[in-house]
């Protein structure tokens, strides 16, 4: 069955990292009053390549639902048709349109909201930006319910920390939002965290358990408990390349975490 296609008009395009050739896009669906989606979902963009072949690419939504608008965060990829189609000015100036369908996907926050560790590398930060906007809207009710929300964001260089100013401003405004960028190849001037995200995730889990007087590893869940009755005080949401996702999952399962506490999406 054919999916319904929508026309999305490009309203804004910014290069947010010259070194990584990462672009932030803002689109408007002029024919719709609201484009409803859950933070963390994705859309599929559709276009014909130079040979007339229909190409489809999935992109995580880099925003929370906001009327008839949505944002994307896309790295330009060498010889990649769709990322270049979006990023290159002759193909995609402001005002140009693309066809999309969606929203799709189940990489969404569990409710009720719990303490949550958001873990991302590269453009895996896109759905995390959507989560942050939904949990802590600039206007309206805070949906975090006072839960601790950690964003552990790993990349190589300081210039590749996408949306850094936004996350720093949010952390300054909301004491229960903790922004933890970490660099694997940071310069000597970098005074923040270094190393891989899984090590910093492990530290968060250990410090939280010590503060709350909780045992580690966590006692195993009774296998007779129906899935609908499982309740956890903390979840992890992981988005990035497979090696990172696997590394974080392994560290968390070593703490006795149940697989239903670990929600992930990988894009390689």
Describe this structure in words.
This protein has helices spanning 81-87, 125-135, 164-173, 197-212, 242-254, and strands spanning 6-17, 22-28, 42-48, 54-60, 69-75, 97-104, 115-121, 149-155, 177-183, 193-194, 234-240, 262-266. It is an alpha/beta fold and 268 residues long. The strands form two sheets. The protein has a six-stranded antiparallel sheet. Helix 4 (197-212) runs parallel beside helix 5 (242-254).
Number of strands: 12
Helix content: 10-25%
How many separate domains? 2
Within the CATH hierarchy, at the fold level, what is the topology of the largest domain? Answer: Rossmann fold
Question: Can you identify the CATH superfamily of the largest domain?
Answer: Nucleotide-binding domain of ferredoxin-NADP reductase (FNR) module
- Report the average pLDDT across residues: 95
> Low-confidence segments, ≥5 residues, pLDDT <50?
none
The description of the largest β-sheet is: 6 strands, antiparallel
Features of this protein?
2 domains; 6-stranded parallel beta sheet; 6-stranded antiparallel beta sheet; Elongation Factor Tu (Ef-tu), domain 3; Rossmann fold; alpha/beta
């Amino acid at each position: 069955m054919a999916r319904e296609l929508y026309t999305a008009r490009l309203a804004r395009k910014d290069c947010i990292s010259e070194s990584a050739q990462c672009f932030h896009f803002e689109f408007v669906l002029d024919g719709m009053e609201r484009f409803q989606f859950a933070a963390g979902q994705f859309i599929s963009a559709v276009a014909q390549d130079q040979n007339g072949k229909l190409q489809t690419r999935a992109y995580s939504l880099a925003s929370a639902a906001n009327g008839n608008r949505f944002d994307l965060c896309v790295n330009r990829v060498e010889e990649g048709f769709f990322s270049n189609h979006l990023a290159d000015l002759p193909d995609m100036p402001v005002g140009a349109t693309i066809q999309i369908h969606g929203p799709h996907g189940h990489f969404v926050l569990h409710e009720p909201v719990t303490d949550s560790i958001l873990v991302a590398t590269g453009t895996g930060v896109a759905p995390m930006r959507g989560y942050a906007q939904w949990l802590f809207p600039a206007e309206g009710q805070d949906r975090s319910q006072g839960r601790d929300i950690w964003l552990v964001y790993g990349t190589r260089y300081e210039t590749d920390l996408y949306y850094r100013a936004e996350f720093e401003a949010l952390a300054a405004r909301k004491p229960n939002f903790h922004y933890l960028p970490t660099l694997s190849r940071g310069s000597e001037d970098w005074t923040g965290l270094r190393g891989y995200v899984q090590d910093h995730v492990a530290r968060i889990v250990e410090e939280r358990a010590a503060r709350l007087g909780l045992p580690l590893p966590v006692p195993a869940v009774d296998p007779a408990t129906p899935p609908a009755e499982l309740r956890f005080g903390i979840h992890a949401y992981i988005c990035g390349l497979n090696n990172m996702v696997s590394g974080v999952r392994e560290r968390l399962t070593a703490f006795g975490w149940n697989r239903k506490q670990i929600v992930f999406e990988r894009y390689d």
